[in-house]
């Protein structure tokens, strides 16, 4: 790639998208089990949830891949998202998910990076096979 002027700084991630096979089970899992606030819904197409300052989207891939008002997009197979929680809530999240029948697949202790404290995260799947992760703090250096 040619050397040129530096890109302007990005200030965050506004949206993250995963894909579902059944909209009702996706809405139930993300709203009731993960406690996300549903802010919009397009029946048979998409769900929009507020997560902190970001928006978490779920799309039916067969519809999203066709395009229309937006360019076609979508994935085949599962995606991955990591959510961050306050350290004091980390163990409560594991207990909460287990109480809802969600299997914790693996827990990892991450070494401190870039002067950060070591951290923990655990992995689980949503009803559509997407790999989700909850971390007790930011895992990455600034």
What's the quick description here?
The protein has three helices and eight strands, in the order βαβββαβαβββ. The protein is of the alpha/beta class. The model has no long low-confidence stretch (mean pLDDT 89).
Question: What does it look like?
Answer:
By secondary structure, the chain is of the alpha/beta class. It has two domains: 11-66, 2,3-Dihydroxybiphenyl 1,2-Dioxygenase, domain 1 (Roll), CATH 3.10.180.10; 77-142, Roll (2,3-Dihydroxybiphenyl 1,2-Dioxygenase, domain 1), CATH 3.10.180. Helices cover 18% and strands 32% of the residues. The chain is built from three helices and eight strands. A four-stranded mixed β-sheet has the order 1-4-3-2. The protein has a four-stranded mixed β-sheet with strand order 5-8-7-6, with helices on one face. The longest helix is centred in the N-terminal third of the chain and has 11 residues, at 23-33. The radius of gyration is 17 Å and the shape is globular. It starts with 14 loop residues before the first strand and ends in a 7-residue tail after the last strand. 13% of the residues are buried. The model has no long low-confidence stretch (mean pLDDT 89).
